[in-house]
Amino acid sequence: MAAPSGIVTPEAVVLEFETAGLASRMLGGMIDLAIQGTLLFVVGIAAGVLSEIGVDFGGLGAALLYVTLFLILFGYPAALETLWRGRTVGKAAMGLRVVTVEGGPVRFRHAAIRAILGLVDKYLLTGAIGIISVLLTRRNQRLGDLVAGTIVLRERSGARAPTAVSFAPPPGLEDYVASLDVAGLDHRDYAAVRSFLLRATSLSPSSRYSLANRLALPLLQRLRTAPPQGVHPELFLVCVAAAYQSAGRRRATGTGFASVWSDPHLGTGGAGGGGAGVPPIEPAAGGGFVAPT
Fold first, then answer.
1. Whose CA is closest to 21, among 3, 5, 33?
2. Are residues 94 and 54 in the same domain?
3. Cα–Cα dist 117/178, whole Å
4. Is residue 149 domain-shared with residue 84, that is, in the same domain?
5. Are residues 19 and 72 in the same domain?
6. Measured over all CA atoms, what is the biggest interatomic distance in the chain, rounded to whole angstroms?
7. DSSP of the chain, one letter per residue?
8. CA angle, corner 204, sides to 202 and 209, nearest 5?
9. pLDDT at 273
10. In the prediction, which pLDDT does 267 show?
11. How many Å apart are CA 129 and CA 126, to the nearest integer?
């Protein structure tokens, strides 16, 4: 069964996608195996014809046969995945594509590792190793994927197309966002902040504040910063997300996110205005946030 997941691009934009399930991967693999089997059959017929007409290459013929066998079993998937942006004929037929866990295109080293370990995944113990690995891993990865750092995605499905979310600096806090040094944060920190911001509207006001505060306080200490007067924890998290995205090498694009705290139509307006019935939260004297009373 396909599993929804996500990746963080170099510009700190999370893309949501659907990984390929066991059934679609097996069907795609059977198509590729049929092609490889056909190629082996043609090679065998050619070798038989040459033998019948008296052509004898001696030891060189045996060496050429083994090299051809290796090229068909290893070269076919490695070459196609490298040159065809993560696809083989079978994957293309099933709407699948291999990408790195970061969401980038696979290179030859990724495809080569997958092809070499595919000999273990697919042929040793009649493919049981690959099947078990796909079933037990969160992203439906076989052994070759785990070692190469790749995943197989579904490009054609009923799921929504991958979407990107960008976080712009809240109005009036552009200078504060620019001052944040987020070099010490990694994609896991950003993913936690992003996940909260996207589901914040589904939370009750008290739970929303509590969770935002729990996320914001450790980040305040790690970033060695103090929030501007009247800034809510959630708005501070928007600032962190905007700063993290702007630190990427490429400009993040996609659907913008507007925090309830920065919406001028809610509360008193401005960066410190309240929203959703929650009063403004003033920063404590020693830094951090004070919960509303």
1. 3
2. yes
3. 46
4. yes
5. yes
6. 96
7. ---EEEEE-TTS-EEEEEB--HHHHHHHHHHHHHHHHHHHHHHHHHHHHHHHTT---THHHHHHHHHHHHIIIIIHHHHHHHHTTS--HHHHHHTEEEEETTSPBP-HHHHHHHHHHHIIIIIGGGGHHHHHHHHHSTT---HHHHHHTEEEEESSSSSPPP--EE-PPPTT-HHHHHH---TT--HHHHHHHHHHHHHGGGS-HHHHHHHHHHHHHHHHHHHT--PPTT--HHHHHHHHHHHHHHTSSS---SEE---GGG-TTSTT-STT--BTTBPP-PBPTTSSB----
8. 105
9. 39
10. 33
11. 8
269 in any annotated domain? no
Residue ranges of the chain with per-residue pLDDT less than 70: 1-17, 156-164, 248-293
Same-domain check for residues 169 and 105: no
Does residue 16 sit in the same domain as residue 49?
A: yes
The answer to whether residue 103 sits within a structural domain is: yes
> Are 198 and 239 members of one domain?
yes
- Domain range spanning residue 210? 165-262
Per-residue pLDDT tens over the stretch 243-268: 988 886 433 444 445 444 444 333 33
Quote the pLDDT of residue 123.
80
Strand partners, 24: none
Say if pTM beats, i.e. exceeds, 0.70. no
150 with 14, same domain: the answer is yes
Q: Residue 292 domain-assigned?
A: no
Residues 150 and 227 in one domain: no
Evaluate whether residue 116 is within a structural domain. Answer: yes
pLDDT value, residue 10 = 46
